[in-house]
Amino acid sequence: MIISEAIAATESAATHAHEAEVFYASPEFWVSAAFVIVVVSFAKPIAKILKKVTSERAQKISDKIDDARRLKDEAAELLAEYERRFKDAEAEAAAIVAKAKENAARFKKEAEEAMNLALAKKEEQAFDKIKSAETGASEEIRAHVIDVGTKTTVEVISGALKNQVTAQMLAASLKELPVSLQKLA
């Protein structure tokens, strides 16, 4: 029992001693206070650094997003421009093809007209040559008929006239006869 009384006495003294001790006299208090002071003194600069780093990072990300939006808008504008140019080019190509077909039809018509005109001129020239040849042939036949008629007349008349003087006069007048007949024709 003595031991138990001694233990009990020590326990009660420790409890009373503990109760009599002030809170700032304990080492746990000073460790806790030092920890709080260190954390508070480093919290503001670390918070500023973290805020600066995160805001810079956020700004970079925001800039990249803005660049991406700008590039997207530019790409959309370029796409719209190229689509418009493509449609314009298609329309222009269709207009060129239509104009070429129209020109080809017009050139074909003009060529046919020119060919028909040339053929008409050639036909007219051929008819003129034929008419000229007919006229020339008619004149040759007429001249030949006059010559034959003149010779025949000379022979008939010279056979009938025996007189030389008369024959000479008749021959001279017969020579003049073709020229006179041609003038009349």
Shape: rod-shaped
The largest sheet, given as strand count, sense and whether it forms a barrel, is: none
Content of β-strand: under 5%
Give the number of helices: 3
What is the rounded distance between the termini? Answer: 193 Å
Return the string of H and E elements: HHH
Low-confidence stretches: none
Write down the domain tally.
1
Q: Overview of this structure, please?
A:
This protein has 185 residues and is an all-alpha fold. It has three helices and no strands.
Give a quick summary of the entry:
The protein is an all-alpha fold and 185 residues long.
List the helices and strands and how they pair.
Layout: H1 2-20, H2 27-160, H3 164-184
Give structural attributes.
mainly alpha; rod-shaped; single chain
